[in-house]
Amino acid sequence: MSKAKKSPMATIADAETLERGIHEANPQFVHVRVRLTRGQLDICPDEEPIARATPLGAGEYGLSFRSHTGKWERMPITGPLDDLAKAVVDALGPFLEKGTFSDSNSGSDH
């Protein structure tokens, strides 16, 4: 009898590791929180997540970005949490700033 393979799940400790890594990579982002949500890690500069780290197995995570439509878009960024924290800051720094995704900033001025 074969057992169904369980998908890897993130833990509270993983959320704490990623959050600490983001804060250490750039102290400007100490307001950013990482929440454990259904086994994934939501990266939140305010109430709403702008990125998500999904466990891939063997200590590796994949990064997705929440587009303006609310759809999650995969990014070509994977790695262990320590590397992912730096990649989040490097790739998504402007989106991690306070108020970036607030209701007053959600529209386009174009």
Mind explaining what this structure looks like?
It is a single chain. With 110 residues, the chain is α+β, with helices and mostly antiparallel strands. It has one domain (12-100). The protein is built from two helices and five strands. It has helices spanning 12-25, 81-96, and strands at residues 33-37, 40-44, 51-57, 60-66, 72-79. It has a five-stranded antiparallel β-sheet with strand order 1-2-3-4-5, with helices on one face. Strand 1 (33-37) and strand 2 form a beta hairpin. The longest helix has 16 residues, at 81-96. The chain is globular. The N and C termini lie far apart (59 Å).
Write the SSE topology.
Layout: H1 12-25, E1 33-37, E2 40-44, E3 51-57, E4 60-66, E5 72-79, H2 81-96
Antiparallel strand pairs: 1-2, 2-3, 3-4, 4-5
Helix pairs in contact: 1-2
Strand order of the largest sheet: 1-2-3-4-5
The separation of the N and C termini measures 59 Å
Number of DSSP strand runs? 5
The best one-word shape is: globular
- Counted by DSSP, the helix tally is 2
Largest sheet: 5 strands, antiparallel
Residue share in helix: 25-40%
* Overall domain count: 1
Give the low-confidence spans: 102-110
What's the SSE pattern? HEEEEEH
Strand content: 25-35%
Average residue-wise pLDDT: 89
Structural class by sheet pairing and helices: alpha+beta
- Rounded radius of gyration (Å): 15 Å
